Prior knowledge:
The complex is a heterodimer.
Chain A: H1 2-9, H2 33-59, E1 72-75, E2 78-81, H3 90-121, E3 135-137, H4 148-159, H5 167-207, E4 217-220, E5 229-231
Chain B: E1 9-11, E2 24-28, E3 34-39, H1 46-53, E4 65-69, H2 75-84, E5 89-94, H3 97-109, E6 113-117, E7 133-138, H4 145-156, E8 157-168, H5 169-172, H6 178-191, E9 194-201, E10 209-216
Parallel strand pairs in B: 4-5, 4-7, 5-6, 7-8
Antiparallel strand pairs in B: 1-3, 2-3, 8-10, 9-10
Amino acid sequence: MSVWKKTSKLNQKTHRERHQPEDRKHLGLLEKHKDYVKRATDYNEKKETLRLLQKRALNKNPDEFYYHMINSKIDKGRHHERETEQEDTPEQIQLMRTQDLKYINLKRTQESKKIERLQAQLHLSSVNHQVKNKHIYFPKNHEKVDQKNGAQDLEFLANVELPDVDVEALKEVSKKRKHMYIELGKRVKREKELSVIQQKIQIKKHLENKKNTLKPTRVKKGYKDSAPVYKWKYERKR
Amino acid sequence: MGKPEDALVTLNLVPGSEVYGEKRISVENDGGEKVEYRVWNPFRSKLAAAILGGVDQIHMPPGSKVLYLGAASGTTVSHVSDVVGPEGLVYAVEFSHRSGRDLINVAKKRTNIIPIIEDARHPHKYRMLVGIVDTIFADVAQPDQARIVAINAHHFLKNGGHFVISIKASCIDSTAQPEAVFASEVKKLQADKLKPQEQITLEPYERDHAVVVGVYRPPPKQQAQ
């Protein structure tokens, strides 16, 4: 008969919800149907949860063992986590982090000094590097681009007579040089890794700073080869 | 036993002394005399990076006169003074007093360097010190670098003399593409009678740097031929 009910209501006047009358103002805002629905669903959810928990408590096997029981206890019918004492105070943790950072900084400076020292004697002139430079010749007064000079030099180098050299010594030296280049490559890589670690620790330290009244927002996620990027809100200093 | 070095060197003008802690290499030549070379680090010097990159000409033969703008502490200047030799001259201009002090110390040992602590934007302030030069080298890293080189060229560079400019793209326009910056600098030079001949970028020693070599007011060509 619900169809009939709907059709009978079709010509009915729709009553709009009224607000709280003036003389009942002291009772606060008048609850509307929308609000009532929210309150009712919340109430029912809670009732259902309580019912479920009660049921579980009744069904519980008192002889059952869980590992979590080692670190927790029931006191007067209430469940408590056993409190473990913190090994380090926040101040101590901060201090350790500072020391870590200082150590990383030290290692990084050592590494960059060593790189500099190696680069001073290894000028990459005998290495085929992947990064090619660009060499442009500008045409003089509508002439064609002139690239002869370089070719002439190469020709000269191909034909020039070299003085007598100790081939054995040359071989040994080139072997040593190769090892030095390998070392340089490793050091450059290590320095890069250290710089990432340094940035990550630094960021973590800044995030834990108690002076942050507004939480900084993360702009970029951190990766293996780059630290995360955070943005702090500008705070006016007096 | 040889040392496993792979380095650019210059013949030391003042044997037995170094300038900025660089390595020195002594070699006996055919006559049994000892000659000393100094290692020229391309990671610190744009000119050395350009040479190792394969630039055709730097126009600083022995005995030439060079005006060096932006000399800083005189590390590269000392190598240029090695290259031009005792017959040549290097006028080294630097504005900062702090690095100027180091420059003067370098010049004390090397008599072919004339240190000038002055702003390169105002060449009339040091015009009484500098004669006509064969080549201008500029490493000033200023947005108006082309103009600085041009006014110095108008004052001191001989007709048909050469210029060598190192351009740092981020110093001129940090937002534009480096290639575009280099091209615009070349345009500016051309407007000031400085004719660029070649341009080389400084990878792998420096990022977004270029060295431009060119000629100033070349003599007109004979039309009969």
